[in-house]
Amino acid sequence: MASAERKKIIAEIERRRGSRLICYLTSDRTNANAAISTDAIPFFHDFLSEIGPTEKIDLLLYTAGGDTLAAFGICRLLREYCKRLGVLIPFRCHSAGTLIALGADEVVMTRGGTLSPIDPSVAGPLNPAVEIAPGQRQIVPLSVETVAGFMDLVKKDWGIEGDGLSHAFRVLAEKVHPLALGNVYRARQQIELLARTLLAEVRKDGKEKIAKIVSTFARDLGSHDFPVTRSTAREILGGQVAQDDHDLEELIRQLYADFAAELRLREPFDPMLLVGKSGTQKVTETLLLAVIETISGGSVAERELSLAPVATPMGPGVQQQVVRAGWRHYT
Prior knowledge:
- The chain is built from 11 helices and 13 strands.
- By secondary structure, the chain is an alpha/beta fold.
- Helix 3 runs parallel beside helix 4.
- The model has no long low-confidence stretch (mean pLDDT 89).
């Protein structure tokens, strides 16, 4: 299905919903993943300026997460152009994507749609590092809940107090730089503030209920990968999650399936396989990393790579060189 065919589905969703629809998908393709980021915001602004102020905007959103401040900014920007905001979730809408959904007046989830916890991971030069190959070290993202879980383990499960607790904290600080731990605390405070701010704009059931929702998504679900299904989301968010509409769900599913095929989400990007199949010394491959699309056109984030075989101490490998990267507009 081409973009022209997708426009028919977008038009039908807009008709059924009485809204204007913007689709935003970030790739979670193996070895070619992308995330919600600030570079998408100018393109949102372009499309919203074209739409103009309107009663209702829907955002079809598929993502594994990304920059929480970018997600917050996208949600607030959408609200500048509409009185009511809906978020349509075909499948995965995790982490920073869930943050956007919390800021919607209405969250429409398919049977396969899932939200996730919003506890962030912090990356920075002071984070711990692991050796992935001789002489190659990689910074490890530091999960807010992992640090909190260690302290809960020490205090609650092991019952350590006093000097023992101080010793446990010293051990942690030896493994993780104290300033990185400070960043973890700030990240938790920030994500909870952002979630409270967005929820307060769409919910009228008071600070206590909002605090409970924020605590659930930021602290109480355990693993960052915990899938919050439609039924669970209704238990947490109540009427903010829309009732079932099977015909609309099928339209959302068809639209997502076509985007997924175009972004090749189910095909791992394997440079070795591409070079091996080519039978030549070099291969050029263009990766589609993110797309923003409306009924009038779209913009896609691309990265063009030049792939060449190379010998390494570990055996045959592939040298990857970025030839071109950026957004391309289409109609």
